[in-house]
Structure formats: C-alpha cells, structure tokens
Amino acid sequence: MALEGLSEQEIAAREEELLSKVPAAGPIGNVSLRTALSGQAWSEEMYWAVRNRLIERGVLEPGRGRGGSVRRASATPAISASSLAITTPIPASSPVASLSERDLYVPMAGVIRSKWANDYRLDSHLVEITAQQGARPTGGRWTRPDITVASFKTFAYVPGKHFDLITFEVKPHDTLDVTVIYEALAHRRAATRSYALVHIPDHKQRELEAVLDEVASEAKRYGVGLLVAANPSDYDTWEELVEAVRHEPDPERLNDFLAQQVSQGFREQVVRWFR
User: Fold this and answer.
1) From 164's CA, which of 85, 186, 216, 257 has a CA 20 to 30 Å away?
2) What is the structure's pLDDT at 1?
3) Residue 107 belongs to what domain range?
4) What span, in angstroms and rounded, lies between the C-alpha atoms of 49 and 86?
C-alpha cells in the first residue's frame, strides 16, 4: 500500500536511501534504522514496505534483537564507506507495572497485528484473541492458545499461496516456568508455528535470567518459538530468543482447530483467501 503511486525510479531511490543506512558488516536494529530514516517521506508503513521488498529480493536478511533487525545479505556489497550505519541507542524502557495474563492479551494482539506481522512479512493476516471463550468446548487441556494468527504468503519464485496458522501462549513474568513451552507445544499439533510470548519488564530481566535460560533450552528442544516483551505495547522492546520451527500439521487437526477455536468471521476470511 505504501508504495502505490510511486514510480520504479522513486521506489529504487527509497531502497538506495535505506541501504545507505545499513552497515557494511553486522546487523542494525529496525528501531535504529527507522530513526536514521526519519523524515517526511519515511512513514512507518513506508519503512516496512521498502525493507520487506529488499528482503524478498535477497538484498537484506532479517535478524533478531529487540524490535527485529536487518543486515546485508552476504553477497551484497556496501554502497560506500560513508554509508556505514547510524546507530541510535534504544532508549531505556519506562518501568512497566506487573500485569496479569488477561491484561496482556489486547496490547500484545495489537502489536502482533501491526508491527510483528510487518516484521515477519505476512502478506495477509488475521489476529484473534482465543483465550477468553468461556465454557465453550475447545478440545481438551492446553488446546486453546491465547492468541491465534492465520496468514497466507506468496513468494516470487514459488507458485501458490502458502497458509500458516500461528499460535501464541502468553505469560506474565511472575508465572514464568517451562510449562509455557509445553502449553505452546500442545498447540503445535494443529499449528504450523507456535510461540511462547512472555512479558518480562526490564527491571525483572536479571532476576529471571536463570529461569529464562531453562525456558529457552526447552523451546529449542521442541521447536517452539520464544518471544520476550519488556513492554507488551511496544514492539521495539520485543525480542525473539528462539525461532519457531515450521512444520505441517495433520490437515484434520488443523481443520478441527479452526472449527473449534476461532470465530465464524475468522473462518470465513480464511475460506475467502483460497477461493
């Protein structure tokens, strides 16, 4: 959407400007890169559109870090010595009060819908809070994720539309233990990717370091993703500690999940994608 109305020359100029802010070696965070590109022409929507276009063409590679990062693809030369990165330190997050799990659903779903989906280059996506369904039967213990995302992507060199169902198990810092990974793993029976999404304010990071290491170890063991958010409302404070491994669930389990866990409107949109 952000690139509509721009000529190929104008888009190429935007790409060149963005690349001029990326270091010749090493990553730069999305936060720092957006700051370096601040100006009237660089809305946040424009940034994500140009960045994702460069990733899709193999010029940049996405990376980890708070708010995500990018680096030049190994075969991409630097534009010039003067175009080394402008690194802007991430400002310290304001202390965030302890929040209950229920308090985290809405802000985290909002960030997933906007910033996270952009960072992961989802062409089209749906986000729904699936935790609060009352007594409605949903298939047994640990079968109900807190947040569910459906998406499809297209690729330049791979034909067809590719469907993903992504689940998130949300936990506040004061209930963090390895159980969050086992809950997310249960969702993975019907999902292509599953994440544990944990709120850990900056002032609790050191205190929970040992527990978080144990949780990360279990996440790697089972292919579950692990995301930590210092501020649930600010993607620039989110960090992916473990990447979720994609797999193809049994189609019947996936179909049953959609029938039991999400709203009618959610299901109808998925059907419209593939008509």
Assistant:
1) 216
2) 64
3) 101-273
4) 20
Distance, CA of 128 to CA of 121 (rounded, Å): 18
Instruction: Read off the DSSP letter of residue 246.
Output: P
- The tens digit of pLDDT for each residue in 7-19 reads 888 888 888 899 9
Provide the β-strand partners of residue 203. none
Q: Identify whether 94 is part of a domain.
A: no
- pLDDT tier for residue 6 given thresholds of 50, 70 and 90: confident
Summarised one tens digit per residue, pLDDT across range 79-92 is 332 332 333 333 44
Residue 93, pLDDT above cutoff 60 = no
Instruction: List the 124-129 sheet strands across, edge first.
Output: 124-129, 147-153, 162-172, 193-199, 225-229, 238-242
Q: Which of 33-47, 109-123, 150-164 has the highest mean predicted lDDT (pLDDT)?
A: 109-123
> 235 and 151, same structural domain?
yes
Contact yes or no for 72/23 (Cβ under 8 A): yes
23 and 58 within one domain: yes
Check the CA dihedral 149-171-237-209 and report its sign.
negative
Are 76 and 212 found together in one domain? no
Question: Is the separation of the CB atoms in 17 and 56 below 8 Å?
Answer: no
β 193-199/162-172 pair status: parallel
Q: Are 14 and 46 in contact (CB under 8 A)?
A: yes
Task: Determine how β-strand 225-229 pairs with β-strand 238-242.
Answer: antiparallel
